[in-house]
Specification:
This protein is α/β, with parallel strands linked by helices and 328 residues long. It contains ten helices and ten strands. Helix content is 31%, strand content 16%. Bound molecules: manganese (II) ion.
Length: 328
């Protein structure tokens, strides 16, 4: 199995857990995101270990563990979702930083169930802010009759109780999704049409960065790589023109991790496709994943991230997560 950045497997305590969710049941257009996590890990061996903000080479003293991929083979979609929750739960106890590689965006609802038991979330997802980089709103009620479709990932996160959803890069959405963006006060959407405008984009982009800096409390960062311009990620499930530049995503990650009153408790990079004529798509995903881990390491070094599990878990009984398949 390839390891993240080609590093030797961490020993002892886990500081950062790299989790692979090769899940693909509902991708509507492209194919191949099930192979994405492995391709991203392989491409990560070519990423520079030095991070300029951190001023150090990764792993920068951290113990980074590349965990064996999830390999659920349950017969139904709902049982697969439950199986992913079981795979994720041990890494969401607050004593390490989990980074999930996907797989289609349908991995978000199981990640939310795992995040529910993070000590800073305290079983109540209304305490959690989700920052979503994406071309799509992912706010449909269902797609082709399936409410756990990748096209519904953000809607299901809100249904699970997420307190705030901040979206950027959005440029492909239905009338129904647009109405929900406007009507649900938990959602703040920064449209690509505004942030990428040649005339006024800078103004909107500054507002986005200020919004990130003002976040308080625990945050999950979900990066659908199709939020980037399609030219950078042609092998993702649904590449879309008119998206974010690499440096805008980089700046979003760094600004979020540096927000003075926020704690980024977990992240995912999803919809990674495998490009065969060039490694550009999987290498772009690997660069972003590396930037997430380096930004976490930087936040740790500044005291913005604390291992919270021991003190908080001592007070509480074990959390029982909600089952996707039992609630039907
Ligand atoms: Mn998405």
């Amino acid at each position: 199995m390839p390891t993240f950045l080609g590093l030797e497997q961490g020993i002892g305590n886990v500081d950062v857990a790299i989790l692979s969710l090769p899940y693909e049941l509902t991708t509507s257009y492209g194919q191949g995101t099930a192979q994405g996590p492995r391709a991203c890990l392989e491409a990560s061996a070519q990423v520079e270990l030095y991070d300029a903000q951190l001023g150090d080479d990764l792993p920068a003293g951290l113990s980074i563990h590349t965990i064996q991929p999830w390999s659920g083979e349950e017969p139904t979609l709902l049982q697969q979702l439950d199986s992913m929750v079981g795979y994720l739960l041990p890494w969401f106890k607050g004593d390490c930083f989990p980074l999930c590689l996907g797989g289609e965006h349908g991995i978000l609802p199981p990640i939310m169930e795992a995040a529910r038991q993070h000590p800073l979330v305290e079983e109540d997802l209304s305490n959690l802010t989700v920052v979503q980089i994406d071309a799509h709103g992912d706010l449909r009620e269902e797609l082709d009759g399936e409410k756990y479709s990748h096209a519904c990932a953000a809607a299901r996160a809100l249904d699970a109780g997420v307190g705030r959803l901040l979206q950027v890069g959005i440029r492909a959405f239905s009338r129904e999704e647009h109405q929900r963006m406007i009507g649900d006060e938990r959602i703040t959407t920064f449209f690509a049409k505004d942030t990428q405008s040649p005339c006024h984009g800078g103004h909107h982009w500054t507002q986005w960065l200020e919004t990130l800096s003002s976040i308080e409390g625990p945050v999950h960062l979900t990066i659908d790589i199709d939020g980037l311009d399609g030219a950078l990620v042609p092998a993702t499930g649904t590449p879309v023109p008119g998206g974010l530049t690499y440096w805008q995503v980089h700046e979003t990650i760094q600004t979020l991790f540096n927000a003075p009153n926020a704690v980024v408790v977990s992240a995912d990079v999803n919809e990674i496709g495998v490009q065969n004529d060039s490694p550009l798509t999987q290498f772009t995903a690997a660069m972003l994943a590396t930037n997430v881990v380096a930004s976490h390491a930087h936040a740790r070094s500044k005291g913005l991230w604390k291992a919270t599990a021991e003190s908080l878990h001592a007070k509480r009984p074990e959390v029982v997560h909600r089952s996707f398949s039992d609630n039907q």
